[in-house]
Amino acid sequence: MYNVLTFEFHTGRNMLISNADFQKAQKAAEELVRSYNYDIPPVDPVTLARAMCIEVRFVTFSDPDINAKVSGFFDFEENTIYVNERAT
Q: Could you tell me the residue ranges of all domains in the chain?
C-alpha cells in the first residue's frame, strides 16, 4: 500500500513514499545481522550497508519541509541510502 504523497528529492525524480511494514523490516534486519555474524550490539549500519555494496550518503535535503520530516531513504535505482545529516 502506498501513500498518495510523492516527494521530489535532490535527485530530481518523483519518488513514491510507501507505508512501512515494521514486522517485515524487523525480521529482515534480524536475518541480515545474523548473516554477517553480529552477536551483540552495536551494529554499524554504514559498515553493514557498504559490505553489501550499498553506497551511503549523508545529505541535507534542499526543501526545508522534507529536511525536517525525512530521516532518509533508499534509492533502488542508485543502490544508495541517503541519510539526512540532521538525523545523525
A: 2-87
pTM: 0.66
Q: Which residues of 63-88 are buried (b: 16+ CB within 10 A; e: fewer)?
A: eeeeeeebebbeeeeeebbbbbeeee
Q: Is the dihedral of CA 39, 83, 68, 27 positive or negative?
A: negative
Counting every residue, how long is the chain? 88
What is the distance between the alpha carbons of residues 20 and 38, in angstroms, rounded to a whole number?
Answer: 25
Q: How many CA atoms lie less than 13 Å away from 53 in the CB half-sphere?
A: 1
State how far the alpha carbon of 44 is from the alpha carbons of 3, 23, 33, 41, 70, in Å: 30, 21, 10, 9, 21
For residue 23, the one-letter residue type is: Q
Q: pLDDT tens for residues 9-59?
A: 445 555 555 667 888 888 988 888 888 888 778 888 899 899 999 999 999
Cell 520530516, located at residue:
69
